[in-house]
Specification:
2 helices; rod-shaped
């Protein structure tokens, strides 16, 4: 009977160490960073403004 108690106690302690040794799951991976700035209407407005500004400069240069 004494050997069974010692064996049961030994198994209990061994299982306790195994349970404590379990590492928590790693945190979920972060989503990838967003891509750079989108090329949308701002680019078109900038090109239109540059074209307008260039034409205006050419017309002012011809008049002088």
């Amino acid at each position: 009977m004494q050997n069974k108690r010692i064996f049961a106690s030994f198994l209990f302690v061994l299982i306790s160490f195994v349970c404590v040794a379990q590492a928590p799951p790693p945190p979920p991976a972060l989503p990838p960073p967003p891509p750079g700035l989108p090329i949308d209407g701002g680019l078109l407005y900038g090109m239109a403004f540059a074209l307008f500004y260039g034409v205006k400069k050419l017309l002012l240069k011809r008049n002088n």
